[in-house]
Specification:
- With 173 residues, the chain is mainly α.
- The protein folds into two domains: 25-83, Tetratricopeptide repeat domain (Serine Threonine Protein Phosphatase 5, Tetratricopeptide repeat); 101-169, no CATH class.
- Helices cover 65% and strands 0% of the residues.
- Helix 2 packs antiparallel against helix 3 and helix 3 (48-60) crosses helix 4.
- It is elongated.
- The relative contact order is 0.08.
């Protein structure tokens, strides 16, 4: 049975997708499915701390959607202590792996950084925002195109050329 099937049929013939008697899944997809069960309360009680624990295990193995969900949990303080640096770290890892939602979040973070006039690298932040919005828009992620258009209005010609070059040369890890 796949992790997806276990997710929607947690009490199938194979039993619960949650580990029994101290056993824990080592496979990132199974860890993600377990985290999602705890996150949504599918089949049993919802437990944010357990969800974060299992997202963390899957995220550490490079599972992009687990990295994204863990970043959201750190961003919102859901099941973990709110920590923007940790959220940014996990958003970046997921974005680098090609997760459109994480790329969108990276774009928003870079765009926010570009508004800070005290920073000397606001041009760099705008270029990075354009790159991330371009990548998420290419995957059809909601609102990415609108944000991409907004950030492109504040780029110089040189910045726009550099942003396009970075977008085209991006290769997910």
């Amino acid at each position: 049975m796949t992790w997806y099937q276990r997710l929607f049929h947690p009490r199938s013939a194979e039993g619960s997708s949650r580990p029994r008697h101290g056993s824990a899944p080592a496979d990132a997809a199974a860890q993600f499915a377990l985290a999602l069960n705890y996150d949504t309360g599918a089949g049993e009680i919802q437990d944010d701390a357990q969800a974060a624990k299992w997202y963390q295990k899957a995220a550490e193995q490079g599972f992009a959607l687990a990295q994204f969900n863990l970043a959201i949990m750190y961003d919102q303080g859901q099941g973990v202590t709110k920590d923007q640096a940790e959220a940014a770290k996990w958003f970046r890892k997921a974005a680098d792996r090609g997760d459109a939602g994480a790329q969108f979040q990276m774009g928003k973070r870079c765009q926010r950084d570009s508004f800070d006039s005290s920073k000397d690298d606001s041009g760099e932040a705008k270029i990075e925002a354009f790159k991330w919005f371009t990548l998420s828009a290419a995957q059809g992620y909601r609102d990415s195109q609108m944000y991409l258009e907004r950030v492109s209005l504040v780029l110089t010609r040189e910045e726009l050329d550099e942003a396009r070059r970075r977008s085209v040369s991006f290769l997910p890890r």
